[in-house]
Amino acid sequence: MAPPRDFIPSYLRDSPISLLNKRSVTSIPLPTRWNSHDRAPYVSVLEDGVSLEYIGPGRNWIDASSIRTDFPVLPAVGLYYFEIKVIDKGERGCIGIGLTKGHIPLDRMPGWEQESIGYHGDDGLLYLQSGRGDKYGPLYTTGDTVGCGINYFDKSIFFTKNGVNLGIASRAIFEGEMYPIGGMISPNERIEANFGEKPFKYDIDTYAKHVFTQAAANKIKEEKAKLSEQTSEVIEIESHEHVEDNEQIISSEQADSTGQSR
Questions:
Q1: CB 95 within 8 A of CB 121
Q2: I need a surface site. Which of 12, 45, 179, 226 has the fewest CB within 10 A?
Q3: Threshold 0.90, pTM exceeds
Q4: CA atoms within 13 A on the CB side of 30
Q5: d(CA 49, CA 250)
């Protein structure tokens, strides 16, 4: 079952976005379920809101269908992660997950379109804004759990399989908000998403703690550097004014001396 719409997953509790939501009248929502109104025709959202099933003919890539979540991930979140479990790989296991923009066509697999990235189970390839994939990770099939994360601090996207981080997939992070996306092609494929309502296979809590700690340290460092720069500018201005005052005093004394000699 999908979590409530104001849900905050454990790894984001006490993060900047969580604290902001507590203080604001209107909170920033996070993805909680698949959006049945934002999908291609051959993917069906089951009653729980987080499970998907492929219902198309599945003849070839022309029959691909993808779906986005109910809400996007905003850069202000800093870090976001979700997982899918492959309940049934179907006939060919042509399943993919990733991230995409809100205007990208959904009759294609994740990563095949511009401003979209996807990791596919049938070939283990990474698709980045192209129908041609690059070698990235292992294949995944029935029983496997695959995750996707976006780190807005270092502008990276990564994937996981069965709790293991497969490494940075891309630093070609797209500007602004991004939607989690899931896609399928062949008959009887079925997946179940986890948007944080239950424990993840991957230890995202530890990863998130490191990310937010580093981000806070970098912010302090930047503020100190900015303060130092501002202080240097003030000192430079005061020094310049002091020189001008001295020049005026010297000029005045010289004028007085000339007047007295006359």
A1: yes
A2: 226
A3: no
A4: 26
A5: 82
